[in-house]
Amino acid sequence: MASIHHDIFIAAAPEAIWRAARAVDRLHDLLVPGFVTATEMLEGEGAPVRRVTFANGHVVDEAIVSVDDDRRRLVWTVMQFEHHNGVLTVAEAEGGARVHWTADLLPDALAATVSPMMAQGLAIMKAHFEGQA
Questions:
Q1: Which residues pair with 84 in a beta bridge?
Q2: Of 131, 128, 133, 117, whose CA–CA distance to 21 is shortest?
Q3: For the segment 42-56, what is each residue's pLDDT rounded down to a tens digit?
Q4: Which helix H or strand E contains 16, and what residues bound it?
Q5: CA–CA separation, 28 vs 38, rounded Å?
Q6: Which of 26, 57, 86, 114 suits a disulfide with 30, CB 3.0-4.6 Å?
Q7: E strands, the chain, where?
């Protein structure tokens, strides 16, 4: 199973980044504008599901597994993949926040597409929160 890890320092308050991350229906305007162009919550039973449209045209449905305010930790799964477990954490760091994004996924071949998208998403998040967007 591919396991991808990316992290980045963002010179912004961790609380502000977490507020945007935990707003699972607002990726497109609060967390990563330009990387995600639309976020729609789908109706249904069970875990909340959001439909995410990326700037490159990819559309995925993601089940929200956990939103942990105490740990500033969000967990989701991409439903179209054989297996996916995504985790985003926001930690305090001197002068800002350290954001860590992990994805465990199958099939392994997806890593070649997913890893660069994760890196791009974090770069856009950094630019957005540091006022460079």
A1: 105
A2: 128
A3: 998 899 999 999 999
A4: helix 14-22
A5: 5
A6: 26
A7: 2-10, 36-42, 49-54, 59-68, 73-78, 83-93, 96-106
